[in-house]
Amino acid sequence: MSWQNPEFHRQLEVVDDRSINPTGNPQLGNIALSRRTLLKGLGAASLATLLPSLLSACSAEKASLKNKLIGFQSVAAQTSSTFDSVVVPAGYRATPFFSWGDAVLPGAPSWRADASNSWEDQLMQAGDNNDGMHYFPFAEQPNDRGLLVVNHEYVNPTLHPDGMQFTAGPDNSRSRPPEQVYKEIAAHGLSIIEIRRAASGQWQRVTDSPFNRRITAATPMAVSGPLAGHPAMRTESDPNGLEILGTLNNCSMGATPWQTYLACEENFHNYFVNRDAADYHARPTHKRYGIGLGGSSRYYAWEAVEPRFNATPDANRLYQGHVNEPNRFGWVVEVNPFDPTHKPRKRTAMGRLGRECATCVIDDNGHMAVYSGDDARGEYVYKFVPQQPYQAGNNSHNRDLLDAGTLYAAQFDTDGRGRWLPLRWGEPGLTPDNGFADQYAVLLNARGAADAVGATPMDRPEWVASHPTTREMYVSLTNNTERGKADPVDAANPREENVHGQILRWREDGADPWATEFEWDLFALAGERQKVDGSIPPHRLGTINGDLFSSPDGMAFDPDGRLWILTDADEEAPYTADIGCNQMLCADPVSREVRRFLVGPRGAEITGITWTPDARAMWVNVQHPGISYPASDGKTRPRSTTVLITREDGGVIGS
Ligand code: FEO
Ligand code: CA
Ligand code: CA
């Protein structure tokens, strides 16, 4: 099978994360109804009243624009179906730096373009689908030597010479070749690689570094926090409920000030199946999270080879077999990259979500919060507040800060105010008569708890970014084609059939991460500009002050306060005809000007962004290119790739 034929692209779509939606389960209709009930009284600003005010605000700002932050000339949108490059502005370089199959562990075999590397090879090589990542500097040479930690979110059919093989079995089950499943498990997780800037100025991977490490979907991890050893975490394979094999679907991430990495488990539901319909519907930790129901897990059918992915209860086995295995995913996983022997810890106090990111924010008093999106249609924005303040330099105190605290879900009012609703057992709605026997039940079904307290269902919350000095918070709401159906339009999610998404921002009261109330507004509605023939329908019109984009996903501030926006839009759709390939843009949070900095190859999502502390080197991920990137000969198999961005004059990126 060629990766340039339509079937390959169709397969890519199948495993892409953009359309996963547990609320597509018709059994969830009651939840949608109860959300509506909870939201009544909040009302909803109509699009007609909202759009003109946003548009006039933008044009006023444009007139007075004196941009000191952004110093590059924007690149054009790229709409060609054969576009296979990464384009950056004049004066910049974009260099492929770390691709699927590259050596991570010393002695790793070379990547083979026919994908014939074995699963044992894959254990030593970079995984697939590079996503969230972070550069951790070494203290002595922070801008010249660091550890780059890269998530490998999921796998593409290109992992194998002829794509993924599935064989249909009885009752809609599917079987898989074991070697394929092992290779897929090995291609998940994270890579940790040491990187250095040589005397020549070139950044290089240190291939024999003792810090280099692969973490996979089978690496042993500790259960940490309230659910360690809890009966809901026990399985036939782990009767103590203390050790989990692997991490799944690590999308975005976080980094703590004590220099650890927070990998987040997003679409873990795709890896499990429960074949017992009655049990499934009675079990919120399966149903509310969209675990597969029926013959096989939604995508990968690993259960055909690894029994723990079959979460069907079996009364004849210890702890009913693996019915609790899905409870062991959906967490923040803390990893210390500077200790290659560190056992990753799943921080259960932070709650179980389809967790996109874990953005840490701290004020001068040590008040800390960790912000997360849960990326599915109509899911929520969360923050976790540790019980204890952060203490700079006291790592024995900080090390387990994420093991105790309060999880909150956000409620956005129509008047630009909002509040954090604590998901604390005993609060109204979080009581036994509503299915929450205790705080453990709240943590395991944080989505259901957020439903019960009346959090605002959002248009697929992805990354959360925090301004480095003002601590103003931004969340990308990537899109929600179902808005206006199960969840009505509201002030924060103002467009029905929202194909383009929006960026919302808020300011905690007193800029205090511990605040329980905030002010919010919409930074921009992504989308198109009206044409002279008036052919763009209102729900697709954006309010962008500058270069157009669709479906914001990755988002982060650099040290100078530039907001970088990375997109994951459907390039085949008619509504992206003028927007083209996925891209990265740079925005000024004050003037709201948006300039396009990078365009990626066709078929790719642009995601994952990190810098050296001096912001003179930046890394960005090109995930699942649909065309032969990074090669340009049109023949070589495409590879998810971390791209290094530098300026020819060595200056600060974006300035
Ligand atoms: Fe993996 Fe929500 O993006
Ligand atoms: Ca996305
Ligand atoms: Ca994402």
How do the strands and helices of this protein lay out in sequence?
Blueprint: H1 6-15, H2 29-39, H3 47-63, E1 92-99, H4 119-122, E2 130-137, E3 145-152, E4 167-168, E5 174-175, H5 178-186, E6 189-197, E7 203-205, E8 213-215, E9 220-224, E10 243-245, E11 250-255, E12 261-265, E13 273-274, H6 277-282, H7 284-287, E14 292-293, E15 332-335, E16 345-347, E17 359-362, E18 368-373, E19 377-379, E20 381-386, H8 395-398, E21 405-412, E22 417-422, H9 439-444, H10 446-453, E23 458-459, E24 461-466, E25 473-477, E26 502-508, E27 517-525, E28 545-546, E29 552-557, E30 563-567, E31 583-587, E32 593-599, E33 605-611, E34 617-623, E35 641-647
Parallel strand pairs: 9-16, 13-14, 28-32
Antiparallel strand pairs: 1-35, 2-3, 3-6, 4-5, 6-7, 6-8, 9-10, 11-12, 12-15, 15-16, 17-18, 18-20, 19-23, 20-21, 21-22, 22-27, 24-25, 25-26, 26-27, 29-30, 30-31, 31-32, 33-34, 34-35
